[in-house]
Amino acid sequence: MIVYFTIVIFIAVVIWFIGLQNAKADWGGPSVNWLDGWTRLICRYIHRLPEQKIALPETGPAIVVANHVSGVDPLLLISASTRPLRFLIAREEYERPIVHWLFKKAGCIPVDRTGRPEQALRQALRALQQGEIIALFPHGKIHLDSDPPRKIKGGVGRLASWSSAPVFPVRIDGVTAQGKVFTAPFVPSRVQLTMSPALHCSTETMLQCLQDISSAIETPAGIKKN
């Protein structure tokens, strides 16, 4: 029994150490930073994610938005960033057993889509005012190119105009397990991220800003809308 226990402890320490060695962002200490490292390893070796980074500012607030095709999408965005990302996530997902501790550690912000979603926006705004980075999928759920058109949520425009934070649109292509959530991170892919220039939204340019975001994250790489 002691031998097996020792082996388990040894394996856990090795996993923790490898994660810390490959971590690039500081999420608040070793207890969570090791997961950053493993996220990057998964995306690099399982999903063949190229060495490319979102052009985020070194300090100060920013908003990252992307199309949402699978459960691996947050991992891809984390891997393309050198700063921690605070994701807006549906409350029912945030409160799932087993993974709830992880979402909480990562600073995810739960959104009550059936009750008071404005609370999540206010929390996200406070985070932006404190110089953090908010990440969200403005379609509100997984939405594939083959699905009927879905209008993006206006919350991203409000956050951007209230905080004056730049918006960085990212288009995700190449995920093999599209439409899947929990299995997607472990199905090999050859992913490509297409990053558009930062957008700046104001109350006056809200509609145009949302249209620009929609165009950037919905248009497949290499295809331009008329």
TrEMBL record:
Signal peptide: none annotated. Residues 62-175 form the Phospholipid/glycerol acyltransferase domain. InterPro entries: Plipid/glycerol_acylTrfase (IPR002123). It comes from the Bacteria. One of its GO terms (molecular function) is 1-acylglycerol-3-phosphate O-acyltransferase activity. Keywords: Acyltransferase, Transferase. SUPFAM superfamilies: Glycerol-3-phosphate (1)-acyltransferase. Coiled coil: none annotated. Pathway: Lipid metabolism. Pfam families: Acyltransferase (PF01553). GO terms for biological process: phosphatidic acid biosynthetic process. This is Bifunctional protein Aas. The lineage of its organism: Bacteria, Pseudomonadati, Pseudomonadota, Gammaproteobacteria, Thiotrichales.
